[in-house]
Amino acid sequence: MADPHSSRTDEWWRDAVIYQVYPRSFADGDGDGTGDLAGVRARLAYLAQLGVDAVWFTPWYASPLVDGGYDVSDYRTIDPAFGTLAEAEKLIEEAAELGIRVIVDIVPNHVSDRHPWFRAALQAGPGSPERELFHFRPGRGEDGELPPNDWPSQFAGPTWTQVPDGEWYLHLFTPQQPDLNWAHPAVRQEHEDILRFWFRRGVAGVRIDSAALLVKDPALADFTEGVDPHPYVDQDGLHDVYRSWRSIADEYGAVFVGEVWLPDAERFARYLRPDELHTAFNFNFLTCPWEPDRLRRAIDGTLAEHAPVGAPATWVLCNHDVTRTVTRYGRTDTSFDFATKTFGTLTDLRLGTRRARAAALLTLALPGSVYVYQGEELGLPEADVPRERIQDPMHFRSGGTDPGRDGCRIPLPWTADAPWYGFGAGAEPWLPQPEGWDAFAVDRQITDPQSMLTLYRQALLLRRAVPGFGDGPMSWLPAGNGVLAFTRPHGLVCVVNLSDHPVQLPRHERLLLSSDPLDTTGLLPRDTAAWLGT
After folding, report:
1. Which sequence positions are flagged as catalytic?
2. Which of 151, 187, 420, 448 has the fewest CB atoms lying closer than 10 Å?
């Protein structure tokens, strides 16, 4: 069947299903316990058969891996744990041969403390040009013993670290991630050169980490809750940076997706103007609880945010920072908030899995593009990582109260009966895989017609083959309490039952797909979604 979206290949990102790969945990090709590019290359056929349009890689660059690769020491070198630049180039080429585009991650707010620029700044001393690339300042207090301001950290803990000569440097994340000074022209030029470096190698897009944090108030004034403008979030100078980046991307036909956490819909939309970013992540939907009214408001709000600038919405249930969907949806509180993460939160995985299946069909039917984090298609739950094996800095900077993000980063199970469930053939994986991980293995699910993997494969096949999916209009249908129902072009209908009882489906000619079987009377069970053709 012809691809109904083929006429829009120049704007593929408006409809795309993009699969997120966290390289350390996807597949280990050399047996050292860490996922790598060799492992990804060996599994590209799996991604092609899954039916994704593009793959987004979290940072694969040279890094001490203090924060999972988001502490970059060299953007032009692949971290040796993952492979080589030549392997990355080959991966991009092989993926393209399978019809899969590659998106890479850029972390412009900060670099690693091992980056040559920061090492030079430490050696050069106060007042030097090298320090102007960062935010070095004298301290406050009688002897400079207090940090220059009171800004809160994106992680727990302080945002300033003092160096032996008495000055302090800013880091919104960990001390090993010093913030760059985006008022300096060399910082802007370097990142523009980095973009061109990867675009020339065939990368189709760039995901921008912490995209609203780059530009700081030059005065580095103290933070006051509720006072605008915020001293380091959503500063107006950001838009000049992204307009410059957009002109570079347009030279190569590449795209951007921004990690933009903003509560103000109007200010969020400014990043998506036609001369700035192509898309941005939809965190309102990601954090939304499994409640019909809240979900509908999140969907309506998202579409309203994007409409004035003509940008497509993006939909995502989970990523490498967020509690796994089947675990979150099985809890009493099905929303997500970093501030409320604790150890020992109870979950009903059977209920969570049922809801996650329905949520998959919901997101894939909404207008725009969809991001699928690795392992979501397998229905992986959040793992309880033993405290002595936790590596995430969020855990340590919280004083051990935050369980961190390692639970959603556990190495994938590929083969049920193989060592390490087929993740690798040598050393133990860098994070421990739970007992019972074999039940989620790809080789078991691929032959099970009722598995989560089979559901995703069927849904992605239909999404590509049946007109009406992807970017475009949608209209809500009248539905009972607790039911979401909407139409898409070409008679496509999606119904999601979040009520406490089975419901009647609207009139339709055929059932395209349901997240779980209809009951014996043809009703849609609770926590179940269906795609209909009318």
Report:
1. 209, 251
2. 448
